[in-house]
Amino acid sequence: MTKRILIVDDHPLFRQALVMATNNVDADAQITQAGNLEAAVNAVSENSDFSLILLDLKIPGANGYSGVALIHSEAPDSPILVISSAEPAKAASEAKRFGAIGFISKDNDLGAIEIAIKDALDGKFNQSSSENNYSIDAEVDDMAQKVASLTPMQLRVLLGVLSGRLNKQIAYDLGISEATVKAHLTAIFKKLDVGNRTQAALAARALGIGS
Prior knowledge:
Blueprint: E1 4-8, H1 12-25, E2 30-34, H2 37-46, E3 52-56, H3 66-74, E4 80-84, H4 88-97, E5 100-105, H5 110-121, H6 129-132, H7 138-148, H8 152-162, H9 167-174, H10 178-192, H11 201-207
Parallel strand pairs: 1-2, 1-3, 3-4, 4-5
């Protein structure tokens, strides 16, 4: 069965390096490329059955771990391998809370990246010991789990709120009515166990927004 792989990175040269690494692992893989979060979300919205998604953590359009959360919500059955120059122990652990299966440092050589891709495709990706030793704030971790339970549209609305958008602006951005935004907010606040936008600030902390 042909593997379908989505590579998401805004740097063309590094994206090509990932294409090369993927082809070295599976020459028959069908590869889709995206240079920003919107293109990546469109790709998984059209076809949510990718065998693997290689995702740059700081892809344009994402803030903190919002890209991981949004893509996972759109394609929950597609494993996400985050690739970033961020500090591995912290980023790997936090990305996993929003659906990533693991983390590859951009400092790794091509051989190490190929091994990680192969392990991910074989379903045996193991987190590093440094990640396992990373301490997670219990309150933030609890909120992260709640955020991860949101539907794709609820997550989009929440991200709009956390970026400071008004209800009417969120409605315009998402192509829905303001009343629908309010209905989503009611459901979001219930799932997050908060009473208003201000109390939802912990969700921003969990998502790493603004950090």
